[in-house]
Amino acid sequence: SFVVHMLTSLASRLFTKAKQIGMMSKDYAWIITDSITNDLHLTNRSVIDSMLGVIGVQPYVLQTKELDEFRIRYKKSFMESNPRALDVDIYGLWAYDSAIALAMAAEKAILGNTTYRAANVSRNSTDLEAIGVSISGPELIQALSSITFTGLAGNFLLVNGELQAPPYQIVNIDGPRASGIGYWTKESGIVKELNFTSADKNTYSTSKSNLGSTIWPGDQSSPPKGWVIPTNGKKLRVGVPNVLTNFVRVTWNSDNSTKVEGYCIDVFAAVMAALPYGVPYEYIPFGTPDHKIAGDYNDLTYQVYLGNYDAVAGDVTIVGNRSQYVDFTLPYIESGISMIVPISDGTRKNAWIFLKPLTWELWLTSFCSFVFIGFLIWILEHRINEDFRGPLWYQIGMIYWFAFSTMVFAHKERVVSNLARFVLIVWFLVVLILTQSYTASLASMLTVQKLEPAVTDITVLMRNKDYVGYSNTSFLHGFLKKYFNESQLRPFYSDDHLDELLSKGSGNDGIAAAFQEIPYIKIFLGKYGSKYMMAGPPYKADGFGFVFPLGSPLGPDVSRAILNVTDGQTMEEIERKWFGDKTDNPDCNTLRPHKNLGLGSFWGLFLIAGIVGVAALIFYVITFLSENWSVIERSSPESSMWSKIVKLLHTFDNKDLRSHTLKELQQTENATTSQQGESSRRMKGKIELADRN
């Protein structure tokens, strides 16, 4: 970017020369100050044509009736007598307003003494220094500082002896003239429209979004970088691994040209585009003449140290030994090391799986609750309901039968007490929620595969001396040598090859587990997630970064650009492009064994049922004692408390003949007995009549 502040004549020569040498192209940005913008109407047309896309600023003058009348008077007074005279410009308007302000200050100061005091100067002084000093000067200056009015050029106001900055219009040279694209004010910064009445002084904006449509050098609508990093005419040589993965995918054409794409490549392109300057670059695959990778990733990064590449873009992990001879940027994707192991499914073979949905605490609480509800309903119904009466063992069986039959709503006994009905309403809600939750949990266990790793930890592999796998291009070979013998390590060359080795197993010329970085594991499980899973604790890794030579000035700038890209929407779009939606490829950490339903999920329901049941029991006991307290009163004073309680229990065991249910039953029985007696008498009369005949 260039900011030009010079005489208009020099600026004309500058832009003409810049056009000739190609500096008015899309890679450049030019800004001119008001000293040049004010004189654009005097500039030659050919110079204006060479300034296409230049941004300028100039003081904004509001077109008023007073200004129009002044221009008319000016043309009549000066331009008719002197046709070569220039039209009035901003400097002329400022001069006119200054003269008006000086006259107003002189009137305000009421100057009485207009004499001058002789200056004390030496013989070598200039003529200007010999001019006398007005005695009334201080009063005139003070009066001038307080003068405020609306002049032809705008508001006239001196602040600390200087004219207050007026609003500036931002213009864009988009053809034969300059078009306004916005404004700048001292209070609000850059704004699209001026609003002198309701300017928000608390909001100061420098956003380019407040500018109108802008044409940039090279007839471009998008802003240029401002400057291009010098490369001596050469592009930045960016090495990429010659692989075919979602991270980096190198495709060779028949003419030996290549197409480089992938997640890492898109991230690198977005990061380079986010730099404040342009960097031309080209991708160079790290491969052999037969289009195979020329080595592992250690060899690839070492090419930067040798000077064969200027940078490396790809799925290169930040490792300590590599940073000894190259510089890494900040990581643009998190990483780690973990195991890929086959899934072992033993859930469906468990004969006691029907007990798994609930924890033993919930089973015990449910059993006790069923017994409590059955016993409570028996208490509330015993004296008034024939279904809850009978021999002792019959009543005990009825308690359990009625309680557990509510689990499937299969009870046939009629409940006549309002208290019992109220308790059962709440209990049915508890049973419904509990049974539905149990059914859903059991169905999930039986139909959804429970993921259990065949190998849970690296120590199991070490103890069994199993074979383990690693990527042939990864740094993990050195990592695994800390735990396993060289003979136990087997490389794999692709996801399909890894699937083949894991399917065979360690005993059939395969492997029991594979170690890989977590980003690769997610891609692998996206393809083979039904057969394998990630297991064991992850080991820390520093993630993927871009590689530059030691001390490269690009490294810090690229790291800052990575922060900007990873915080924005661009990263999500790139991930969605190459890895799909997260819902399509679930994270392996979400594939966890099924959890049993515990008491913590239902204690609120049991609490409500318990409170309702206890309240109903207390109410029933109070009512029973109030109705049968005479039993206690009729007892002998010498009777013990136990004997009184026994009498109350005998009373409880008897029928409550005052109950409307028993009254209706008694009336029904009496009516039936009367009908049977009447029928018997009629039959007897018929028999006697027949005997007489």
TrEMBL record:
Its main location: membrane. CDD domains: GluR_Plant. Coiled coil: none annotated. It comes from the Eukaryota. Residues 679-693 have a biased composition (Basic and acidic residues). It is a multi-pass membrane protein. GO terms for molecular function: ligand-gated monoatomic ion channel activity; signaling receptor activity. The chain crosses the membrane at residues 358-380, 392-410, 422-443, 602-625. The keyword Membrane applies. Pfam families: ANF_receptor, Lig_chan, Lig_chan-Glu_bd. It is found in: Membrane. Residues 664-678 have a biased composition (Polar residues). Residues 664-693 are annotated as: Disordered. May form heteromers. Glutamate-gated receptor that probably acts as a non-selective cation channel. May be involved in light-signal transduction and calcium homeostasis via the regulation of calcium influx into cells. Belongs to the glutamate-gated ion channel (TC 1.A.10.1) family. This is Ionotropic glutamate receptor C-terminal domain-containing protein. It comes from Erythranthe guttata (Yellow monkey flower).
